[in-house]
Design brief:
- The N terminus is likely disordered.
- The radius of gyration is 17 Å and the shape is globular.
- The chain is mainly beta and 183 residues long.
- It is built from no helices and twelve strands.
Length: 183
């Protein structure tokens, strides 16, 4: 099998391109949404640097994804493993939770770094699989976690938009969402 490289003019088709960028200003934001995404991408990557003013569990809030405006929890399946101050894994059969970020009770200035990838976002032959990785430190002495997660959107439609909301709060100032793609 030949070795392929990724980059401009490569067998993979092209370089990484910035598709969407938004940074939350003063007053916060209830959601972050790409609007209609451009087409022609073989892979999309969601980058979130975030913090919430709400708290759902132990100094954190859950980031919920909605693809193409679909907010029906039953259309998503998530499984995850986590490690840090405690280790574990779980399967949530009906949740849109893609990330966990520090909430309002976390120590000041803690933000989470989150990345999720979707391969074949325009394919219509199968459900969409989202692989996410994120680190969420919530204070200086405890509540530090790393996560690996998989979310499946049980829909074969091409992904045309991505929206993120929080389970209990708003995104705080400085939260940044970037969406990149490879053609």
């Amino acid at each position: 099998m030949p070795i392929r490289t990724i980059g401009a003019g490569s067998a993979a088709g092209g370089a990484l391109e910035l598709i969407f960028s938004e940074t939350v200003g003063s007053g916060g934001a209830t959601s972050l949404s790409t609007g209609t995404l451009p087409t022609g991408y073989k892979q999309l990557t969601i980058h979130l640097y975030g913090r919430s003013d709400g708290t759902y569990v132990v100094k954190a809030d859950e980031v919920l994804i909605a693809l193409n405006g679909d907010t029906t929890n039953g259309n998503y399946v998530q499984c995850a493993n986590f490690f840090g101050d405690s280790d574990g894994n779980y399967l949530n059969t009906e949740t849109r939770n893609v990330f966990s970020i520090p909430g309002h009770t976390a120590d000041a200035s803690f933000f989470a770094s989150c990345i999720a990838q979707v391969t074949s976002p325009e394919g219509t032959d199968g459900y969409k699989s989202i692989t996410s990785h994120f680190a969420s430190h919530r204070d200086s002495t405890a509540n530090r976690y790393g996560y690996n997660s998989a979310v499946t959107w049980k829909n074969t439609a091409a992904i045309t938009s991505i929206a993120l909301t929080l389970r209990t709060g708003d995104f705080v100032e400085g939260t940044t969402l970037l969406v990149t793609g490879v053609k």
